[in-house]
Amino acid sequence: MSDVSVDWEKARELAYTAGRAAAGRAEPVTLSEADGRTLAEPLRALTDLPAFPTSSIDGWAVRGAKPWRPVGRVLAGQIAPPLTEDGTCVEIATGAMVPAGAEALVRIEASTRDGDGRVLGEPRNGYVPEWRQPGEEAAKDEELLPAGTAVDPAVIGVAATCGYESLSVYPRPRAGLLVFGDELLTGGTPGAGRVRDSLGPQIPGWLRRLGATVEMVAGPVQDTLDAHVTAVRENLSIADVVCTTGGTMHGPVDHLHPALTELGAEYIVNTVAVRPGFPMLLARLPGNRFLAGLPGNPQSAVIALITLVAPLLAGLQGRPAPVLPAVELTGDVRGRGGDTHLALARLSHDGRTATPVGHVGSAMLRGLANAHGFAVVRPGSEAAAGDVVPFLPLPLLTGERP
C-alpha cells in the first residue's frame, strides 16, 4: 500500500479507466425502461426520416395553374393517390403524405372557393413546397447518436420516431453506502459531543444523479474491524460500487484500510493531492467490485465522490470520461501549494462565470448548498478575478440547470 498522493487529474483518469474496463455487457430494454441508461450501440435511422413527403400544413396539394378542381382528400396515415391532371388538387392535412405529381401546397387560410367550387389561392413564397422531403431529417442508416450517449426522454423520442421497439444499453451500476462512525447521531439535534450524520441522507441522491441505483444504505457501523469487514462484505454482495464515509486515515478507530487488506483489495488510488478532501481512496475488490472511501468531513466527502466515483460510474456505464467546462472567475481564489484546490462556486445563469461562495470549510455544508460545483485551481498556481479555470460541476439530474 502506498500513501503517496496521486495528482487530482490523474486520479480522475485512473477511476474512469477502472470503471470502463469493468463495464457490464449490453442488454436490450424496452423504450419505457431505457430512461437514464446509456446507449451501448449507435442509434441509427432505420429508414429515411421522414419516410415519405409529408405536409407541413392544412390546405390543398395542387397541380398546374389555378383554379384547381378538388378531386379528393388525404389525411395523416393514408396513402395518397397521385395527382395526374393539371388544374386539380386534393385537400390535405398536416402530417399527411403529399401525393406524387403535386407541385405546391396552398394553406387553407390563404385559399378561397369560386362559384363552381374550384380552389383559388397562392402558395406561400411562390411555388416553394411546404412539405418535408424524405430524408430531410436523416437518411436511412445514418448515425443519429453515438454509443455512450445518456438516454433521456428526447433520445427515447428519436428512437420511437425511427421505429425502435427496444434499445441496447449498459446495465445501471448498483451502489451501496456504509456510514462509519458509531458516534454519529441519526436523528435529533447535535450536542454533547455528538454530531448528526449528514452524509447518509445525501450521498444516495448524488449517486442516483450519477446514474447508479442505490441498493443499500447502512450504518453507523460499529467502530471495530470485524464490524467493518462484515459490513463491507455484505454490501459488496449486492452492489458494484460501495461508498464508505469516514475512516480513510489511520486513526485509532479507522478500520477501513485493515478491512480492505483482509478483503483482498487492490488500491487504484490511495489519497489524492487535492484540498479539501485529500484522504480519499478507491480500491478494486475480488469480483470486479469497487470501494470508494470518502472522508468523514461532509464537503470533503462530496469532493471525493465527484473526483473518484463520478468518473468510475461514467466508465461502468460506458459513457465518455467527464470533460470539465471552463468558466471565468468573478473573484480571487487562492492556491494550495502543491495540491489542486477545489473552491466552491456558483455559476451565472448562462454558465459562463463562477462566483466563489462563503462557508467553505471541509466540515461545512452551507457553502455546498449554495454552489453549483468547484472552481479548479491547479497546483502551484493562484486564480484571480477574470481568469478562466476548469469547473467541476456537482451531479445534476437530467434537465437540471444552474
UniProtKB/TrEMBL annotation:
Pathway(s) the chain acts in: Cofactor biosynthesis; molybdopterin biosynthesis
Pfam (any one): MoeA_N
Gene3D superfamilies: MoaB/Mog-like domain (3.40.980.10), MoeA, C-terminal, domain IV (2.40.340.10), Molybdopterin biosynthesis moea protein, domain 2 (3.90.105.10), Molybdopterin biosynthesis moea protein, domain 3 (2.170.190.11)
Upper lineage: Bacteria, Bacillati, Actinomycetota, Actinomycetes, Micromonosporales
Coiled coil: none
Cofactor entry: Mg(2+)
Protein family membership: Belongs to the MoeA family.
EC number: 2.10.1.1
InterPro entries hit by this protein: MoaB/Mog-like_dom_sf, MoaB/Mog_dom, MoeA-like, MoeA_C_domain_IV, MoeA_C_domain_IV_sf, MoeA_linker/N, MoeA_linker/N_sf
Domain MoaB/Mog stretches: 176-315
Protein name, as recorded: Molybdopterin molybdenumtransferase
Functional summary from the UniProt entry: Catalyzes the insertion of molybdate into adenylated molybdopterin with the concomitant release of AMP.
Keywords linked to the UniProt accession: Magnesium, Metal-binding, Molybdenum, Molybdenum cofactor biosynthesis, Transferase
Catalysed reaction, written as an equation: adenylyl-molybdopterin + molybdate = Mo-molybdopterin + AMP + H(+)
Domain of life: Bacteria
